[in-house]
């Protein structure tokens, strides 16, 4: 297929090899991360474009139902975080789970035989082996090579009043926030709202769509990259888990003031870049609150000690007793 976005003309090639030249009022380029329409934008000046391949690839494995039921609890995102790699599992309507293994390409390449697959799973995901099954695991691992993941940012999304990019064509993101498809759907909603706002005048609608949508799509691309680290490494940290509990507790007490980032991004129409701004503000306030709380607790402790000083002579005697007990121990 060839496009001339400036003229809104398309040369289409049908499955039987025949070709058709089509003249459109508007071309909507929603042809995915490797968009042919977007390629035509690259020939123009003042079109910004960047793409980043992450060092990890992904491979999908199927966990079958167990006696006709889900093999694990279905209403959860299951994560096996292993710092430099991870596996996640999401439920499907047919009671299977799709397990996705994210790992650096060089680690995928080290596993060359069925026995090495089982050995790898025994080391890192032993509980998943009986749920997926030895034979399925050995077979599915070699069904397809690990796939690459790319993050694409570009701007603007339009050319004149003739062509506009949407979905992965405009903003392919790494899949760690579960928002790639959602961001594409939101492109459609926002475009529809702007169409109404400007009485379907493409001359005004297309630049406005780029103006409104680019900062949000860039924000979700950055958040997805951030989650790439959070899911495989941060979730192992006690401080991270403590902070999540604090966030959830504060959200329970003040649901309109403190809203966890994931809630804002996933369950609301808060614009992605606004969600990020608010998240930074909340982080600052909560961290300062925790430091202040710790300082107040420390001062309170010191005050109580000063007000009710412990009997030093008793402490000294106790220490001396412990010391003589320790000295009496055989070497
Ligand atoms: C492992 C993984 C997990 C994901 N998980 C989630 C998730 O949990 N939640 C979520 O929201 N998103 C998720 N995503 C992202 C989601 O899959 C994509 O964001 C979404 O599919 C993009 O939709 P799209 O229509 O823009 O592009 P695509 O789905 O890529 O569709 C593009 C279409 O254009 C067609 N096309 C391409 N080139 C041409 C051409 N030259 N001529 C004619 N047709 C063409 C293609 O055949 C295809 O049908 C995930 C992605 C991956 C890789």
UniProtKB/TrEMBL annotation:
Gene3D superfamilies: FAD/NAD(P)-binding domain. Pfam families: FAD_binding_3 (PF01494). InterPro entries: FAD-bd (IPR002938), FAD/NAD-bd_sf (IPR036188). One of its GO terms (molecular function) is FAD binding. Its cofactor is FAD. GO terms for cellular component: mitochondrial outer membrane. It comes from the Eukaryota. Residues 11-188 form the FAD-binding domain. Keywords: FAD, Flavoprotein, Membrane, Monooxygenase, NADP, Oxidoreductase, Transmembrane, Transmembrane helix. The chain crosses the membrane at residues 248-265, 285-306. The keyword Transmembrane applies. One of its GO terms (biological process) is kynurenine metabolic process. This is Kynurenine 3-monooxygenase (Kynurenine 3-hydroxylase). It comes from Iconisemion striatum. The gene is KMO.
């Amino acid at each position: 297929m060839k496009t001339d976005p400036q003229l809104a003309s398309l040369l289409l090639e049908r499955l039987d090899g025949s070709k058709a030249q089509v003249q459109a009022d508007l071309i909507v380029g929603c042809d995915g991360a490797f968009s042919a329409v977007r390629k035509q934008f690259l020939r123009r000046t003042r079109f910004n474009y960047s793409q980043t391949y992450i060092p990890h690839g992904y491979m999908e494995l199927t966990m079958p139902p167990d006696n006709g039921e889900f093999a694990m609890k279905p209403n959860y995102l299951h994560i096996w975080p292993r710092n430099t790699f991870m596996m996640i599992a999401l439920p499907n309507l047919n009671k299977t789970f799709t397990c996705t293994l994210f790992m650096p390409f060089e680690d995928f390449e080290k596993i060359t035989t069925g026995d090495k697959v089982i050995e790898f799973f025994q080391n890192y995901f032993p509980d998943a082996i009986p749920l997926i099954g030895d034979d399925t695991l050995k077979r599915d691992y070699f069904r397809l090579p690990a796939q690459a993941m790319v993050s694409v940012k570009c701007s603007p999304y339009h050319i004149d009043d003739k062509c506009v990019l949407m979905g992965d064509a405009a903003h392919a993101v790494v899949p760690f926030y579960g928002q790639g498809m959602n961001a594409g759907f939101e492109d459609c909603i926002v475009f529809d709202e702007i169409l109404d706002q400007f009485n379907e005048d493409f001359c005004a609608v297309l630049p406005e769509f780029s103006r409104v949508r680019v900062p949000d799509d860039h924000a979700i691309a950055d958040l997805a990259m951030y989650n790439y680290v959070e899911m495989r490494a941060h979730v192992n940290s006690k401080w991270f888990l403590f902070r999540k509990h604090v966030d959830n507790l504060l959200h329970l007490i003040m649901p309109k003031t403190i809203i966890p980032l994931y809630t804002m991004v996933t369950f609301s129409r808060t614009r992605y870049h606004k969600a990020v701004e608010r998240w930074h503000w909340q982080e600052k306030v909560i961290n300062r609150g925790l430091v202040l709380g710790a300082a107040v607790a420390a001062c309170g402790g010191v005050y109580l000690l000063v007000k009710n000083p412990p009997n030093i002579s008793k402490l000294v005697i106790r220490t001396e007793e412990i010391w003589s007990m320790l000295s009496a121990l055989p070497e």
